[in-house]
Structure formats: structure tokens, C-alpha cells
Design brief:
Order of helices and strands: HHEHEHH
Distance between the termini: 13 Å
Strand order of the largest sheet: 1-2
Shape: globular
Number of strands: 2
Number of helices: 5
Radius of gyration: 14 Å
Length: 110
Amino acid sequence: NTLQFNAGQDYSLCYFALQVGWLAPPSPEYVRHCAASIKCRYLNVKAIPYDKELWPAYKEVCDIIAGSTKEFKLVYAKGSHHVHLDEPEKVAADITDFLLYTGADELCVI
């Protein structure tokens, strides 16, 4: 399966690298490359508390995505890494608002 976010650009390797990062993490340079390639509206749900040691690298990637997209929204929710699955009521309103935005035809979900 190939993800097509921008005409003619293939992001399947970026998607694959980011999804299997726990097996063999991609290089920081490759993660930044993938982040800069995202052009669609982007919603990021971040569970708190989080590993503060990892925050600088995470924030750098978020800043890159925010700079390359039409809209970047970062939502914090108290809970585990899977807060969106375990306690969806904590983020349901934010997700609904994001999806119902009039520009939703430009939405891509990663």
C-alpha cells in the first residue's frame, strides 16, 4: 500500500519507518525528513505524563510538522500512551472538532 498525500510523492517508506520504529528506530535525520514531508492537516494526541527526557526530540519533530502543514494541533490528555483507545471520552471532542472542520477534505490520518 502506498500513501499519497501530495500528487506524485510516495510516503509509504516514511509511514513504514515511523510505524515500526520500535523494532529498529529510523535515524533522527530520516524522521525529520518524513516530518517535513507531511503537508496535510495534522492532529497529534499526546498522553501526559510523558517521558520528559524524550521531549526535546519529540518537540523538534512536532515543530517541523507544524511548519510544513496547513494546520497542526497538539492535544494533551491525562492517561496512558493509548489514552485515545482506553479513555476516548478524554479526546473525543478534540478529534470530532478536528474532523468536522470545513477543510476536512484535506485530512490525512497517519
